[in-house]
Amino acid sequence: MNKPRLRGVIAATATPLHPDFTPDLPRLVKHCRALLDDGCDAINLLGTTGEATAFSVAQRLAVMRSIGAAGLPLSRFMVGTGVCALEDTVQLTRAAADLGFAGALVLPPFFYPDVPAEGLIAHVDEIVRRAAHRKLAIYLYHIPQNTGVPWPLAVVSELRRRHPDVLVGLKDSAGDLAYSRAVAKEIPGFDVFPSSEASLGNANADGFAGCISATTNLTATYAQAAWASQGSEAGAAALRKAADLRGLIATYPLVASVKAALAAAHGDAEWSRVALPLRPLNSEQSAALAEAVRERISQP
Q: For the chain, which domains are there?
């Protein structure tokens, strides 16, 4: 069967929180709908920007089900399902396929250091075997600066050889475009997504399927113009705008900064709350960021 193939501008959505740090599902649904309306081709739910590691399996399942229940097109959603425990990863990955998500984004097992290649391969083999589902589509999540465990190119290549109908792509949040290009070149037809809008300007030539970015929560319109108009002056101008806004947001810790910017954009202070142990921006930082973003957006 043909599985939905994600391409283009994908927002790694933030997750709004209640005062007790549980996911605020109505706000999340509203935000996801706005992202799709504002230029995102798809959404990465429950990733790093979405603070997924702060949530229990039950909370993550509730988030996933809320998106489907709201009538949002799950064929345009990738969802993070990788956790330390194998069986929890299997449960979340199977649920993603059952619910109709376009793909499950799987972290490497990230507690033990120096995980050998054969251990990584066996881990994914077991996820595929246990989750067994005709709609199963797995994307590997490469973010070694957080996990301490990379997805080496040789491991990715071997997993693609073993599971060509299941292992469909990789999100590279290492900020290493040389790695992204190497994966795309080594594995034809494999969908590689760098994590910065800056990669969109030459995405087709580099063999990228698009980008999955935290700052696309704010830059969706510009990122889409850059993706759609690669090689043109209009595309280059949009890319500069997106990169400029990304640079402003990256002035502060990323998750807190994205949420502060969303609080300003939505006129809703509830958006500024972050999951423990993270801390929100203080009032001075939030005000400075909001003013800088407003000023930059108003410029031609």
A: 8-231 (3.20.20.70)
Q: Average pLDDT, whole number, for the chain? A: 95
Give the CA-trace dihedral at 253, 84, 168, 69, to 10 degrees: -80
93 pLDDT exceeds 60? yes
Counting every residue, how long is the chain?
A: 300
Q: How far apart are alpha carbons 212 and 46 in whole angstroms? A: 13
The residue-averaged pLDDT of 211-229 equals 95
CA 264 to chain CA mean position, Å:
22
Cα Rg, the chain, nearest whole Å: 18
Looking at residue 294, its pLDDT comes to 87
Per-residue confidence band for 295, with pLDDT thresholds at 50, 70 and 90: confident
pLDDT class for 296, splitting at 50, 70, 90? confident
CA distances for 300 relative to 79, 231, 297, angstroms:
35, 20, 8
Q: What gap in Å lies between CA 15 and CA 180, rounded to an integer?
A: 27
Return all residues near 86 (Cβ < 8 A) that are at least 6 apart.
109, 123, 126, 127, 130
CA 120 centroid distance within chain? 21
Peptide bond before 277: cis, by omega within 30 degrees of 0?
A: yes
Q: Are 198 and 239 in contact (CB under 8 A)?
A: yes
Asked if pLDDT for residue 1 goes beyond 60, the answer is no
Q: Are 186 and 153 in contact (CB under 8 A)?
A: yes
Mean pLDDT of 114-132: 96
* pTM exceeds 0.90, yes or no: yes
Nearest CA to 220 out of 191, 247, 241, 206 is that of 241
Q: How far apart are CA 247 and CA 19, in angstroms?
A: 29
DSSP helix/strand/coil, 283: helix
